[in-house]
Amino acid sequence: MIPAPFDYVRPSSLDEACRILGAADPAEGDVKALAGGQSLLPLLRLRLAYPSVLVDLGRLEELRGVQDRGDHVFIGALTTHDEVLRSPVIREHAPLVALATATVADPAVRHRGTFGGSLAHADPAGDLPAVALALDSVLVTASGAGGREIPAAGFFTGYLETALEPGEVLAGVKVPKLGDGWGFHYEKFHRTAQAWAVVGVAAAVRLEAGTIAQARIGLTNMGPAPVRARTVETALRGVTPPAAGAGADGGRDPVRDACAWADEGTAPPADLHAKPDYRRHLARVLTHRAVRAALS
Amino acid sequence: MPRVTVTVDGVAYEEEVEPRLLLVHFLRDRLGRTGTPVGCDTGNCGSCTVMLDGRSAKSCSVLAVQADGSDVVTVEGLASGGELHPMQRAFHEEHALQCGYCTPGMIMAAIDLLRDDPDPSEEAVRQGLKGNLCRCTGYCTIVRAVRRGARAMSGEPPGETAGETAGETAGETAGETAGEPVGEGVAAP
Amino acid sequence: MTEQLDAGLVARRIAESDQVGEPRNPAEGREVGRARRRREDARLITGRTRWTDNIQFPGMLHVAFLRSPMAHARLTRVDVSAALAMPGVVAAFSGRDFDGEQGSLPCAWPVSEDVVIPDHPPMAVDRVRYVGEAVACVVATDRYKAADALEAIEADYEPLEAVLDMTEALADGAPAVHEAGNQAFTWKFSGGDAGAAFRDAPVVIDRTYVQQRLIPTAMEPRAVVAAPEGEGFTLYSATQIPHILRVMLALTTGIPEHLLRVVAPDVGGGFGSKLQVTAEEVLGLLLARRLGRPVKWTESRSEGNLTVHHGRDQIQRISLAAERDGRIRGVRVDLLADMGAYLMLVTPGVPLLGAFMYNGIYKMDAYDFTCTGVFTTKMPTDAYRGAGRPEATFAIERAVDELAAELDLDPVEVRRRNWISREEFPYTTVAGLTYDSGDYEAATERALALLGYDKLRAEQADRRERRDPVQLGIGVSTYTEMCGLAPSRVLGSLSYGAGGWEHATVRLLPTGKVEVVTGTSPHGQGHETSWSQIAADALGVPFEDVSVLHGDTAVSPRGMDTYGSRSLVVGGVAVLAACEKVKEKAKRLAAHLLEAADDDIEFADGVFRVRGTGLGGAGRTVQELALAAFAAHDLPDGFEPRLDADATFDPENFSFPHGTHLCAVEVDTETGTVAIRSYVAVDDVGRVVNPLIVEGQVHGGIAQGIGQALFEEAVYDPEGNLLTTTMADYLIPSAADLPDFVTDRTETPATSNPLGVKGVGEAGTIASTPAVVNAVVDALRPYGVHDVPMPCTPERVWRVLARSGASADRAGAVRRDENDGGAQ
Question: Which domain holds residue A97?
């Protein structure tokens, strides 16, 4: 199908982009920021979105790139998924981001789609919001008013909704370095290899002397916005994981038991690909798998 | 209307375009480069895959204005001096196409895949091509072709491949993989 | 400076690289049996394609259709005036604007006396019966403006109740899709005395299977270009059936057949979905006629998912009576087949193509078949790869597995006890078909060896013993199919509207090159290559000297097109027959020139010689004779100055490819995920013209059958809206979702045609769906599972396990409510 008409501007600086987006009058139509367009263009083509103006941020080099900033990694919003995967800084200091990014769509989409675009689009089935949430990332915005720093926990406000105000642009994301002792995994469950996640689990787990000292679990597609599996995180603390293979004969596995709380406080959707009870079940099983993988 | 400058298969074009014009329609309807087809409207099928500034992109999910200043290579620009690109040749030699509609995108995706992994395993090929759908081949011969093309591009002789084997031993039926039990050791997808 | 593609050079280079493969048996010729790489590829791998959407004409207009958002409604008003005022819009019409002119889309298969064929206007006039039915159209200067103008059309609907469930549709008081009610037809068939077979039967298996609705999903969306040319029109369409389409369009639109040319350019797959006469084709022609300008319509994928005819959608009740030792006494089938809202080209015939196949490869005394066609407010169904036969094969192969489970026998052993043994061919089945040849033992033995069946069974036992959360299942499918559609007399007896012959013309050109004109219409099957192989052998000319013309009624005026695994079996044989006729003529000319009697001329390696003179003797090559005929200086009396011939082949029987497919799956009982671990296919498609092409057809067929088994389903919501309109929702497998397939063949030549070929287009699809589902169920038998509805998605597998009482949770995470220790 074919997009409805819209106007197009390509600002040459972030300031200009903020000015244009800030000056937009909502009464005159929807002004939308365009990053890689890999989610937006299909919506335009299906005529599920009718923006009056697209503000193409694609040439704003200042929003591109990955920087090591001491206690955190800064990922420019326009850094493509492909660039994220190639970044040695990410590999070293934010491996969970790399693990999840590698599962996003397919290579061609990853060449165009951006890290910031995925977060700002806030699709509940998108893989990266749960990761940002699990890592307590901070989303850095710019606007005519100067910009803000929004913790991930306050950024994803609902289905395709974020805390971004009109005229506010996501500039980048601060991903805290977690330090030593952490293991990571992103467990994605989907029906075909290129399909969106039915459920995804982002897990970061820290062992201390053989016992789980800390766990962070973010869930994809278990509600209108990504959620932390806080009950699991609490339940895992202090648990000593059994050796691999133990518990297969029916013996109690405390890690598994803790992960059985994964769907606590979630509101999974019912759609073509799964009903809520199945998603709840998947969240429990996949969280256990993600934690086990993160531990190994 | 915005004016864009795009190089397509070595030719520079300067055109006025509506902002909403998709790159694939720019190629097909404006420039007459119809070698790149459209197969879906959600970026899933990959039939429209081209090289955009050297990396694969689905040209149905890119606006022509986004490609301003870019270099585009389509399947029509791969052969040079009457010589097929090794990947084109490999698709032919391994019978990796039937109706051929997915083929332009599949070939572009395969070439892109080899940039990072010049000698991909079967599994790497399957994962690397997951954004390109084919309804005819069941992908077996496509996987063989990509690996054959990889060897050709790295200068190795094509070696024993299924297509050739099937041909040369046709008297014994096309049992290229026949002969050994496969219950063991075949990885699940 | 761009690199220009030298097409001729590329083609030559390709040809040079194609000297591959020795003929399988030199005595049979140099080409047939050889793994020739395809001559079609050159244009397809370089983008020099001729897809319908590539076609541009000066002044061409673009058409877009407004489609009903309601499943069932009275269409009370359509106002296109605002659309007409939009920029670039040349015309806009409602269905009423074409009332009296647009006719009714044809159904060519009135299957029974009681069949109801409702009026089916290409654009709805006063009632809509499925979401996606066209209600208006706009014609604009480009496709973007046409899409915009659609939004300016106003249409008002008075909703009626959607009719979605076949059983409810047949109930008293159900809302009627058509005035005559919701029953489209009933069709019964029987062989033997089913009552006797089931009476006191020691074992009866009674199952109901649902063949879910599928969307064929050829990669090329449909496209139509209609252009006024001279007195008449040329219609370019992404169609499998240019010849049938020409006849049907002439009958539907009143455009005289001789003024209508239909062209199928490069066509990007069909799988039955382009075996249709569509609203867009009819309206394209009518618009070109009304506006006097060429028009183009190209569908989007989401439009196509709504409006390309769907496949399958049957509810099958199958009962099987057997002895305690596993021998089958008889089979009863009661079928509900969802027609959708209308009967399209062969909609009601699809289930009947399966009617003769529910007995499979098995001997039995009695068979009873009833089919009821049902109207619903959904997109009409019609042919999809296999058309009726995959459904039948699925039901019998699933039921035979259930019989094996009931009797605690190995599923292969039950099949052995029932199948037609190799000595029994030709064998007339309980359904009245005569299977001419086959060797089920050989194919099965080969498949078992390739899979390593016994070893896998041992591993399965071990996993069951260990209560491994990942269970192993092995699925068996031994299939045959009736294909090579078809003997015209048989089609006539089934009330089909046309014959099943195929036509070919072979022409020797003055320079000795050969043109083969075929009535088949390939869209990925490689006929240009295979037909060249057949003609090269028959005429003793080089492969490269043959070209194959097809897909244009001006070039190939006679044909029955490509579907039903018929092209090689009927059309390829017609090519051979035409070559033989040309050879007869050439022989007469050679005899004349060599001053010998006709009977004294023999032919070998492209040379006609006087018998007994040996290779050194005087002779005339095919090429010399072609030139001699052209020059016409010295021809026998009454000899027309040309070496060409027409031939039409109408087979006396169907062909019956068969094979054994084995599938091993791993089922993750915690998540319900099914992963195919290995897949083995041993097919017997008779003699093989090109092993590369045969292997490719098998691969693709297997993938599509796996798609039905595991991934694909067209889903309507309770209001009748299709939910699977995009490729993000209707999931077809990618390379990463499928394993490599191991394929091999056995070979028993068909006896019904001189090439000995059986057809291969549908075999993989027919065989693979039951192989996969049997494997899934086999994996889950220890949990008391007897069926998993298709597609066997993880969620479905999980629910079946949960219902079976063997909670998947027990194998997986401990549920909170069971976790008496609680979290720590």
Answer: 64-176
Residue of B nearest to A3 (CA): B20
Residues of B in contact with C747 (CB under 8 A): 173
Confidence of residue C30 (pLDDT cuts 50, 70, 90): confident
Q: What is chain B's mean pLDDT, rounded?
A: 87
Query: Which residues share a beta bridge with A174?
Result: A74, A138
Q: For residue A228, what are its two tokens?
A: 């932390």
Of A113, A145, A176, which closes a domain?
A176
Distance, in Å, from the CA atom of C77 to the CA atom of C49, rounded to the nearest integer, reads 42
Judge if pTM exceeds 0.90.
Answer: yes
Q: Tell me C486's DSSP state.
A: -
What does the pLDDT average to over C293-307?
A: 98
Q: Where is the domain boundary, A15, A33, A56?
A: A56
Tell me, what CATH number does A26's domain have? Answer: 3.30.43.10
Taking the C-alpha atoms of residue C687 and residue B174, their distance in angstroms, rounded to an integer, is 12
Q: A48 and A15, same structural domain?
A: yes
Superfamily of domain B86-166, CATH level 4: [2Fe-2S]-binding domain (1.10.150.120)
The confidence score (pLDDT) of residue A262 equals 98
B24 to each of A205, B30, B58, B62, how far by Cα in Å? 45, 10, 8, 8
Where are any strands of DSSP class E within C278-310? 295-298
Let me know whether A192 and A266 are in one domain. yes
Q: CA C750, CA C689: separation in Å to the nearest integer?
A: 13
Any domain includes A2: no
Q: Average pLDDT for residues C413-429, to the nearest whole number? A: 98
Q: Is B98 on the interface with A (CB under 8 A)?
A: no
- The domain ranges of chain B are 3-77, 86-166
Tell me the CATH architecture of domain B3-77: Roll (3.10)
ipTM of the complex in this document: 0.96
Residue A43 forms part of a structural domain: yes
pLDDT in tens, C593-619: 999 999 999 999 899 999 888 767 789
∠ CA(C278), CA(B37), CA(B138), 5° rounding?
85
Q: How many domains does chain A have?
A: 3
User: How many beta-carbon contacts under 8 Å exist across A and B?
Assistant: 88
Which pLDDT does position C545 carry in this prediction?
A: 97
A129-172 confidence digits (pLDDT tens) = 999 999 999 999 999 888 999 999 999 999 999 999 988 999 99
Tens digits of residue pLDDT in A263-293: 999 999 999 999 999 999 999 999 999 999 9
User: Residue B182 — very low, low, confident or very high, per pLDDT cuts 50/70/90?
Assistant: very low
pLDDT of residue C19 exceeding 60: no
Which string of DSSP letters, residue by residue, matches C327-370? -EEEEEEEEEEEEESS--TTGGGHHHHHHTTTTTTB--SEEEEE
Residue A251, in any domain of the structure? yes
Taking residue C59's Cβ as centre, other Cβ atoms within 10 Å add up to 10
Please give the mean pLDDT across all residues of chain C. 94
DSSP reduced 3-state for C777: helix
Instruction: List the single residue in A2, A191, A231 with the smallest CB-CB distance to C144.
Output: A2
Does the pLDDT at position C813 exceed 80?
no
A286 to chain C, minimum CA–CA distance in Å?
8
- Write the CA distances from A197 to A187, A283, C812, integer angstroms: 10, 12, 20
Q: What is the C-alpha separation between A182 and C209, in angstroms, rounded?
A: 50
Closest chain B residue to the Cα of A103, Cα to Cα: B127
Is residue A250 in a domain? yes
Measure C654 CA to nearest chain B CA, in Å. 24
Domains plus CATH for chain C?
7-53 (no CATH), 54-160+222-298 (3.90.1170.50), 384-484+653-805 (3.30.365.10), 501-649 (3.30.365.10)
SS3 content of chain A, % helix, strand, coil (to 5): 35, 25, 40
The per-residue pLDDT for C9 is: 62
